[in-house]
Amino acid sequence: MTDLLWKSLCALALSVALASAGNAATLVEPTLHLRGGGGRVALTLDACGGKTDTRILSALVENRIPATIFVTGIWLKHNAAAVEIMRAHPDLFELENHGGRHIPAVDTPRKIYGISSAGSPDAVQAEVESGAAALASAGGPAPKWFRGATAEYSPSAIAMIRKLGFKIAGFSVNGDGGSLLGAKETARRIAAARDGDVIIAHINQPTHAAGEGVVQGLLALKQKGMTLVRLDDAEDVGNDGTTD
Ligand SMILES: [Zn+2]
């Protein structure tokens, strides 16, 4: 082997090593929008685990506000009464896949907001498929959308989830800051949503002030004449290869 060839092989090996280290380090938080026009805003609510915020669920039913609810296998197991209410209003609620065990869909080992990632491609696949299986055994239609815990992904996990047949639900308005914001700020953020926005908030934290803000914000949006829709009611456009 010539010296020159050896050097170029070393350079190639180094650049491959750097590229894979770069991939391991880079997570994406994809955005999602509706194709614009008509003052439509999509409401998505995560049910990660824990209980049901009945302030939000009742307000949605009473005011006929449609929503896409991302549920985990854990949440489904412990919230049968809420699931029954959602199933009784198929015109309002679309239930989608938030994973079997609320484990971030990241295929390398790391922590995201203190939660351990799935850590391998097999574990990401298990999280996605167990979430879909839990929804199927709860008797509903098969989910078409997936949103991973923490809504952050490795690009290779996104590609895999797409191959499993799911679109990935990003968002464009962080309504409740992981359910940790106060009622006033949550209401302000949600009420400020514009044509084509996709809001994310939580429906599993009944003791948090944010839930009250979710209700106020949604009522304000309606008052402004915006039309709330589900992800399935519109054409959705995500980045990072999440919907195309
Ligand atoms: Zn979650």
How would you sum up this structure, described in words?
By secondary structure, the chain is an alpha/beta fold. The protein has helices at 3-25, 54-62, 73-78, 80-87, 121-137, 155-163, 183-191, 210-223, and strands spanning 32-34, 40-47, 67-71, 93-97, 111-112, 115-116, 145-146, 167-168, 173-174, 198-202, 227-229, 236-238. The strands form four sheets. Strands 2, 3, 4, 9, 10 and 11 form a six-stranded parallel beta sheet that branches. Strands 1-12 form a two-stranded antiparallel sheet. The chain has a two-stranded antiparallel sheet with strand order 5-6. Strand 2, helix 2 and strand 3 form a beta-alpha-beta unit. The longest helix has 23 residues, at 3-25. The protein is globular. Residues 14-23 have low confidence and may be disordered. The protein binds zinc ion. The site of zinc ion has 5 residues, from loops.
> What fraction strand?
15-25%
Average pLDDT, all residues: 92
Q: How would a crystallographer describe the biggest sheet? A: 6 strands, parallel
Protein structure class: alpha/beta
Total strand count, please? 12
Question: Low-confidence segments, ≥5 residues, pLDDT <50?
Answer: 14-23
Report, as a whole number of angstroms, the end-to-end distance: 45 Å
Report the total helices: 8
Report the order of strands and helices. Answer: HEEHEHHEEEHEHEEHEHEE
* Anisotropy-based shape: globular
Radius of gyration: 20 Å
Helix content: 25-40%
Small molecules bound: zinc ion
Layout of helices and strands:
Elements: H1 3-25, E1 32-34, E2 40-47, H2 54-62, E3 67-71, H3 73-78, H4 80-87, E4 93-97, E5 111-112, E6 115-116, H5 121-137, E7 145-146, H6 155-163, E8 167-168, E9 173-174, H7 183-191, E10 198-202, H8 210-223, E11 227-229, E12 236-238
Parallel strand pairs: 2-3, 2-10, 2-11, 3-4, 7-8, 9-10
Antiparallel strand pairs: 1-12, 5-6
The protein binds zinc ion.
